[in-house]
Amino acid sequence: MSALLTLQGVHTHVGAYHILHGVDLTVPVGEVTMLLGRNGAGKTSTLRTLMGLWTASRGTVTFKGEDITHLPTPDIAARGIAYVPETMGIFGELSVAENLLLAARSARRMADLDAARLDWLFSLFPALKTFWHHPAGKLSGGQKQMVAIARALVEPRELLVIDEPSKGLAPAIVANLISALRELKATRTTVLLVEQNFRVAAELGDSVAVMDDGRVVHRGAMAELIEDGSLQQRLLGLALGAHQ
Question: N or C of the chain: less Cβ packing under 10 Å?
């Protein structure tokens, strides 16, 4: 598969702190790439750097063959990259509908939203339709996460970047989220997904990169990591079989 996004030797400094130490990462077109690692390994920092929220001090970020390393965040987003941060970034006082409208670059009014695409989003996340006119801030954590992902998908995007969508959610809600993301995966949407929940990673990932101490220390097929308990233990400090 050809690469949609590539990070080569990316270093990031935040103030006096050297956060990323030469990250090499490839995201193939049409696949779900999992970015795994222990807490503090540099996963979120990698996403913030590729989105331009933090500036790489060295190395390059390439998207569809274009160097986007030093572009402002709005310009990166305009190239077709949607970002769902760990905090979700929901506008709590706005309705679900208004949250989605804000993310739709081609729409100024609700009537301008693509009806067919909304129906598709409602099929992925039925709660969106139920709470369409409700303040987003009053939704449950799982429902807010669905709003955040749907907002990123309200218009076609080349790449969807999601940071820990299952964090803090009840197991039943995580199961629903996995189901929705599996349907999204079936559309061949390219996704870069950070997760701490290995079950989610195992269900969704095609390829995997594991980070430690600000660099990628393992790259390969997700299926291989799933089958190798000793590799899971060495890279992540866990074995999938012990958590099923």
Answer: C
User: How far is the C-alpha of 210 from the C-alpha of 190, rounded, in Å?
Assistant: 18
Task: Give start and end residues of each alpha helix (H) in 188-243.
Answer: 198-204, 222-227, 229-236
pLDDT, tens digit, for every residue of 168-220? Answer: 888 888 888 888 888 888 888 899 999 988 889 999 999 999 999 999 999 99
Residue 33, CA distances (Å) to 4, 184, 191, 195, 206 in order: 11, 13, 6, 11, 6
The Cβ of residue 85 has, within 10 Å, a number of other Cβ atoms equal to: 16
* 10: its two tokens: 């990316």
The pTM is what? 0.90
CA gyration radius, the chain: 18
Which residue segments constitute the domains of the chain, with CATH numbers given?
Answer: 1-80+159-168+188-244 (3.40.50.300), 88-157 (no CATH)
